[in-house]
Specification:
Strand 6 and strand 7 form a beta hairpin. The protein is built from four helices and 44 strands. The chain is mainly beta.
Length: about 725
């Protein structure tokens, strides 16, 4: 590992001539964030936050919400099925490895301060985005929904007072086609608008060698956002927005087949000698799966945001409705051309939220208080068909129908008291009440009428009603305009949930307790070299009580509570060695332990958390120079490294992914007036093969399901800005 780190670091030094500061100002630009619900410089915010601007995401080739993990220390994102489906988002190791549609992630996602609950809606296309902020550690005293691990918030571009916009077109490997546009500006006196749209298609990143099957993990999506901003008065504005998205993946999300067996310790191991026996090739991007697979989903959202400034405070009201439908998701669970095991997942998730927030300043105090109401309803089915269902259920189908409703309300507040000009004490409290009701029907052939789990059959196990108090206390010291040091403790919780699968679970395993995480953190933010360099870092310890860990057993997805601990550190540096050269390096370290986890043999021991690499590194270098006519030529190289990760809580060898590195590049030309840009790009230049998810079916079918990262790809793009 030390050799790998050294090689990567040396490579970053050797390629410094490929980095650039496009502005050529000799100083790094100030980055403004709203991590504390106020516009602040990221360097003045006592929160561990990584920021990617919209311009940076365009230049890095960030297309989906999953991509930002490659450029954020401490963030890992793994698509549980594949492209366009449920992602496991883990911030500093805190994530959810389950794939039931009624769950919520402990690492939350917001778009324009609106919480997104539906798990499958968290893999979405990024378009016309101003910036993305990744806040690490418990969040809840300023945000509507509590978040155990942290949150990602995306801020989109808003209607402005001048006409402006852009059009970008791209094409590349694997049938890549992409078109994105946005235009905004004044419509009438006191009214401004903006429309944004994207269309993205490719032929699939996994080649299906079965002639009857389509290539897998395709992209075929379109999305639209419309916004209207009304100046109601000098003190009040109303922003109305609507967004729609549609995804139609003809190839579905099948896995690659990897035969496996149980070793003497009862943990699954890949049968390397026969690894390619089903697929027939050693290309990890080849699969050999059934035909007729598909993924179809639709998303609709509407938001009304009112900002009203009074003499002593500001009022913010955010009203939102979302509807996310998995209309048809059919998967090949045996990962062979035979229709031995087919699963289908259909769900409809509707959510409504209302947030009211007041904030103001009173002498040496900045204060924020808010209330949040949230209603989430998810109903759907998961069905198992084929001969495997006959083995387990006595008929060639087994269907679980579920209907879950979550009702939550919370009161939260935070204040910052300036003890002196240099020393600030911050504190926050949150009270949350979560109520959940679950009704499930297991329609299996061996039981006439099926098995019903509701309040009439399992009693209080079908309902959860939980109160929780979370808090934050932090001290920050401004040691001068170039250094800020902060430290504190915070606590957040995630409500309990229910277990299910393709058949009824034992009632003793049905209800899952809430989890609580207490974080102790010390960090610093510094600006060096007259504004040419930034160096930020943090160390933290998590006391994680009743962590909701996951195991798949006997056709059921089972969450169970286990205590855990996480120790970690992060370091981020961005610098301008010259006016034309910009370098960024991010390093994350994690030491995670889930305590007393029992495996199939009955052995109880500590394990590592899922998606918690001991070491992760991201490096970016960009160099630009002015050529004839004042136009700009820029060359960019970026890379990321991850040490070993596990994709299951048992830490089975078959579910362990070895360390990997990926490298990307981009060369661009921009006109002197910045109205045109032409670019060529390459991703995964070394064509490294590594898994982004794996799932164990050794006990049921004798193999492990695998999803691999996209192979080496190339492309071109052209953009016009006005």
């Amino acid at each position: 590992m030390k050799k790998m780190i050294s090689r990567l670091f040396i490579a970053s030094l050797a390629t410094q001539s490929w980095f650039a500061n496009a502005q050529g100002s000799g100083m790094l630009e100030e980055v403004v964030v709203t991590a504390q619900k106020r516009e602040q410089s990221a360097q003045d915010t006592p929160v561990a936050v990584t920021v990617l601007t919209g311009d940076a995401m365009t230049k890095l080739g960030v297309e989906s919400s999953n991509d930002i993990a490659d450029y954020t220390p401490g963030l890992s994102i793994s698509p549980v099925f594949g492209a366009g489906n449920i992602p496991n988002i883990a911030i500093r190791g805190v994530g959810l490895n389950d794939f039931r549609d009624y769950h919520e992630s402990p690492s939350a996602v917001y778009v324009d301060e609106v919480y997104k609950a539906a798990l499958a809606s968290l893999d979405f296309q990024l378009f016309d985005v101003e910036r993305a902020e990744v806040l690490k550690g418990p969040q809840g005293t300023l945000f509507g929904r509590n978040a155990t691990g942290g949150l990602i918030q995306y801020i989109t571009n808003k209607p402005g007072e001048e006409l402006e916009g852009f059009v970008r077109l791209g094409a590349g490997s694997l049938g890549e086609t992409k078109a994105e546009l946005a235009v905004g500006g004044p419509i009438a006196d006191g009214v401004a608008g903006r429309i944004s749209a994207v269309y993205h298609k490719n032929d699939g990143i996994h080649n299906n060698v079965n002639p009857a099957g389509d290539d897998a993990n395709q992209t075929d999506l379109s999305a639209f956002r419309g916004q209207l901003k009304f100046d109601l008065s000098d003190a009040a504005t109303l922003l109305l927005s609507v967004e729609t998205a549609s995804n139609d993946n003809d190839g579905g999300n099948p896995y690659r087949y990897a035969p496996s067996f149980f070793a003497a310790d009862s943990l699954a191991v890949i049968d390397e000698a026969n690894r390619n026996v089903v697929v027939g090739t050693d290309d990890r991007n080849d699969i050999n799966a059934s035909g007729g697979l598909a993924l179809e989903s639709d998303y609709t959202a509407g938001t009304a945001r009112l900002n009203w400034s009074f003499e002593a405070f500001d009022l913010v009201s955010i009203t939102n409705f979302q509807d996310f439908e998995k209309e048809h998701v059919q998967q090949d669970c045996d990962s062979t051309p035979d229709d031995f095991c087919i699963t289908e997942f259909i769900s409809d998730t509707k959510q409504f939220s209302q947030e009211l927030r007041l904030q103001g300043d009173l002498d040496a105090i900045q204060w924020d208080v808010g209330v949040f109401y949230f209603d989430l309803q998810t109903d759907g089915t998961q069905t198992l068909t084929g001969p495997i269902a006959g083995i387990f259920f006595g008929t060639e189908f087994g269907t679980t129908q579920f209907d879950t409703e979550t009702t939550s309300w919370a009161v939260f507040g935070q204040l910052a008291y300036h003890l002196t000009d240099e020393l600030t004490l911050s504190g926050g409290l949150r009270f949350t009440n979560d109520e959940k009701d679950m009704t499930q029907s297991f329609l299996i052939g061996v039981v006439p009428g099926g098995v019903v789990y509701d309040s009439s059959t399992v009693g209080p196990l079908a309902t959860q009603d939980e109160d929780n108090v979370s808090f934050m206390a932090k001290l920050s010291w401004d040691a001068g305009e170039n250094l800020m040091v902060y430290g504190g403790v915070s606590k957040a919780f995630k409500s309990g949930t229910f277990n299910t699968g393709f058949g009824p679970v034992d009632p003793s395993q049905y209800s899952v307790e809430p989890e609580e995480l207490t974080s102790f953190e010390l960090g610093f933010k510094s600006t060096l070299g007259g504004g040419r360099h930034r160096l930020n870092g943090a160390v933290f310890f998590y006391d994680y009580q009743d962590h909701q860990a996951f195991v798949y057993r006997d056709l059921n997805q089972l969450l169970f509570n286990a205590d855990a601990e996480v120790f970690g550190a992060e370091l981020e540096w961005t610098g301008l060695p010259t006016d034309s050269l910009e370098i960024s390096v991010g390093i994350g370290y994690l030491d995670s332990t889930v305590k007393d986890v029992q495996d199939r043999s009955g052995a109880i021991r500590d394990r590592e958390m899922v998606l918690a690499p001991e070491l992760s590194i991201n490096v970016l270098a960009r160099y630009s120079w002015t050529i004839a006519g004042g136009s700009i030529l820029a060359a960019q190289l970026d890379g990321s490294y991850s040490s070993d990760v596990f994709y299951d809580n048992l830490n089975q060898p078959a579910l362990k992914e070895d360390a990997y590195t990926q490298i990307n590049s981009r060369v661009s030309w921009s006109s002197a007036d910045d109205s045109w840009e032409l670019a060529v790009w390459g991703k995964n230049l070394a064509d490294e093969e590594f898994r982004i998810y794996a799932f164990d079916l050794t006990a049921d079918l004798g193999y492990v399901q695998e999803v691999y990262h996209a192979p080496r790809t190339f492309g071109v793009s052209v953009g016009y800005y006005f």
